[in-house]
Amino acid sequence: MRGRPEAWADADLRFDREVGWSGPSSPSEPWLATFAGLTLEMRTTEAGQVGLFPEHAALLGWLQDRVGAAGNTPTILNLFAYTGLATLVLAANGAAVTHVDASRPTIAWARRNAELSGLADRPIRWILDDARAFVTREARRGRRYAGIILDPPSYGHGPGSGAWQIETDLPELLVACAAILDNGGFMLLTAHTPAFDARHLADLLGHALHRPAAAIEGGDLTLETVDGRQLELGAFARSPGGA
User: In angstroms, rounded to a whole number, what is the distance separating the alpha carbons of residues 221 and 56?
Assistant: First the structure.
């Protein structure tokens, strides 16, 4: 759009940090989208989001493979789970998912997506909680998971536990997650914070799991434009688990 500013005239909606949403479509009206075999409700938010990070699509096949390799109904923990894309893909492929988010409206949105996608009856635990507090309690309860997914924000606020800052809080959370991961379990970490590139995420995940960074897979989260450009939107690191 920077090279073709006139293209904004054809956009149904646009977001500017200074003025918010504008365009011929109503920003207050939700709409439905089909993505990864799911039916999802899209809405505009004050932060400029619409309820989906499409760059995560490249990771969904890997998650499906992990569920298949884990056997019968593996239990997966999804932290900072947002509107439920990964949760619903995992549930659709036979996993029992614990979906944790600190926002009550966002959990309601995710449950709406489960209903729209015909997955409301799947074994999903919907948990309103701070990720750090929840993982700490799960460790005390002796619960363990076959896989853990994290998509932490740069900054945030959990209910009753103060502010979240990825620079200071993520390393400790990853160590806590490793303590409730089954032997041979998998972990997937994504981030959209500029300083947290794939190498840095791999270093953090490897340290938490006591594995060399070279044993951790990683890469960029990108989207390709219609004219072939790559939009860099974040990074990921993952440990496939296994024996």
Answer: 7
